[in-house]
Amino acid sequence: MRVRLKICCIKSPDEARRAALAGADALGLVGPMPSGPGTISYEDARHIARSVAPPVSRWLLSSETRTADLIDAADQAGVDTLQIVRHLDPQVLEELAQKRPHLRRVQVIHVEDESALDLIEAYQDHANAFLLDSGKPSAATETLGGTGDTHDWGISARFVAATKRPVMLAGGLNAGNIAQAVRTVRPYGVDLCSSVRTGDELDDNKLTTFITALRQAEQDLS
Asked: Which CATH number do you get for residue 104?
């Protein structure tokens, strides 16, 4: 079992290079958001995306809600994957598939309670993958990720078992809890931001510590 690794909140070509060298399979570039850390302009995202060589994938996190705006954001950022952080009408994802068939679509599901499981059927025929996070779109102050909080991994495990799509796990993951997270949820991949940063910078030591713990967790499951 190899768990894929996405490092989010990348803010410069140097951070992208260091994350890729450390073993990241994907890099997250955070576009304009109503809240949360790591936001950058589309121009900066494009500059970073151009600095990343395959096979590392470049993801743009977008809070846009209309097909045209999502396409425009992805085109401006020059990415190969769009991480959609709102629970949109599934028809929007279908329109994206038709108009940008080579742009991968990752639908974020914010696991607030068991109702997250009801979204599998709605989205799995239109998204290439899911990402389970700890945002609270229904809260008085909306959050769409980047909280640094965990959610109920029991629900996440049920989600993974019930869908035919790959599932990434995000939300409060760190070197201390990644073994339990992988053992409980069995995700296709994991996604993190704040736990591998110090202040506003990617921290190589924290990243190395996390990756060591992740790979040990894989071995323990084999």
From this structure: 3.20.20.70
